[in-house]
Design brief:
alpha+beta; 2 domains; 3 helices
Length: about 140
């Protein structure tokens, strides 16, 4: 395949290798195609990959994974990734963000009188956490 006698020619989609390189590869194969000595590859210096720090170009909002209206219909709790957003139900205006939740918030619920809010979530079938409090208290408390 390196010589082009068998298709596809290698390297696939690239320029054919120079004859000198093909000769070296043949000699290596004829010699038994031995790899590096044990431990030799581990001692060879390798560079760490450069991972770019890419920031979103526009503001992002976590996906909606749970919803609950307060009994009076004036407040909407929106569960997402590690947060619950409280919105004015009539305008959609954000009122508060309750952060510090475990993973995806999978359920939110108001008490029947609307004074308490429960939020639960986490990694499915692995771990989870529930938080309870008044919407005002949950805004200021640590996870």
């Amino acid at each position: 395949m390196l010589e082009g006698k068998i298709k596809p020619q290698m390297p696939f989609g690239g320029e054919p290798l120079p004859p000198a390189v093909i000769t070296n590869i043949k000699a290596w194969i004829d010699a038994g195609a031995n790899g590096p000595a044990p431990g030799a590859a581990a001692t060879r210096a390798t560079s760490q990959p450069v991972i770019p720090d890419i920031k979103p170009a526009v503001p992002t909002v976590s996906p909606v994974t749970a919803l609950s209206f307060a009994p009076n219909g004036k407040l909407l709790a929106v569960g997402g990734y590690k947060e619950v957003r409280l919105l004015d139900a009539s305008t959609g205006k954000p009122l508060a963000t309750l952060s510090g939740h475990a993973g995806q918030v999978r359920t939110v619920a108001f008490s029947p009188d609307g004074k308490w809010l429960a939020a639960a979530g986490g990694l499915a079938a692995r771990s989870g956490r529930s938080r309870f409090g008044t919407p005002e208290l949950m805004t200021s408390c640590a996870p």
